[in-house]
């Protein structure tokens, strides 16, 4: 019987911190060989079919009688319907699913029931947390305390904007799309850092050099 582990983090920044290493260590301590641990960077909100590493694990590596282990059920999915689909696939292929944050029984039917119930709770808690966050942002906006994420205007961004505007003659909208920076920020760079004036975005003519 081969055991596989799946570890997932939501972002590249988490990939380099203790979250990922903690998951791998837990899996190793519970009998998973390090070579059999597959790691992925991607949101649990994404459909399982849109996570290539997980797809490889499910469709190419796991065989009948194998074990799939995760440290927490939300490493697989925070969407109950998606998790039910996964459970059905594993159950039909006689692959045992173990989540280390759940009670485990020798009865596969009981394990399936527990996992499905906890998946529903995880989705409920995730959605409730998002609603609280949205409500907090709305309240802060009313009080003028929430400004959203601030884009850092650095030398690299200024040089990119200057090149796209002066060498490629692109519009502010096009520059915004290419750089992934909001149009107000592009206007700010042009006016405050590159010397453009007014919404016409023209540079004042330099005085003629003295003869």
TrEMBL record:
Record has DNA-binding as a keyword: yes
SUPFAM superfamilies, alphabetized: Resolvase-like (SSF53041)
Domain Resolvase/invertase-type recombinase catalytic: 2-144
Pfam family name, one: Resolvase
CDD domains for this protein: SR_ResInv
Compositionally biased spans, kind Polar residues: 10-22
GO biological process: DNA integration
An example Gene Ontology molecular-function term: DNA binding
Keywords: Chloroplast, DNA integration, DNA recombination, DNA-binding, Plastid
Chain spans, region Disordered: 1-22
Name under which the protein is recorded: Putative serine recombinase
Source organism of this protein record: Nanofrustulum shiloi
Gene: orf211
């Amino acid at each position: 019987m081969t055991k596989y582990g799946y570890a997932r983090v939501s972002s590249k920044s988490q990939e380099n911190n203790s979250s990922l290493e903690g998951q791998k260590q837990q899996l190793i301590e519970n009998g998973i060989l390090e070579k059999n641990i597959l790691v992925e960077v991607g949101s649990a909100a994404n459909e399982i079919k849109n996570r290539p590493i997980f797809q490889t694990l499910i469709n190419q590596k796991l065989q009948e009688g194998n074990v799939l282990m995760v440290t927490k059920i939300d490493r697989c999915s925070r969407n109950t319907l998606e998790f039910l689909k996964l459970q059905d696939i594993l159950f039909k292929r006689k692959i045992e699913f173990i989540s280390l944050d759940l009670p485990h029984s020798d009865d596969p039917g009981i394990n399936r029931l527990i996992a499905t119930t906890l998946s529903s709770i995880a989705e409920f808690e995730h959605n409730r947390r998002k609603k609280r966050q949205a409500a907090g942002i709305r309240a802060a906006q009313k009080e003028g305390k929430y400004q959203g994420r601030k884009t850092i205007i650095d030398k690299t961004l200024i040089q990119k904007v200057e090149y796209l505007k002066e060498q490629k003659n692109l519009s502010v909208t096009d520059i915004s799309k290419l750089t992934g920076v909001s149009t107000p920020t592009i206007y700010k760079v042009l006016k405050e850092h590159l010397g453009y004036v007014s919404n016409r975005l023209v540079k004042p003519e330099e005085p003629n050099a003295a003869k």
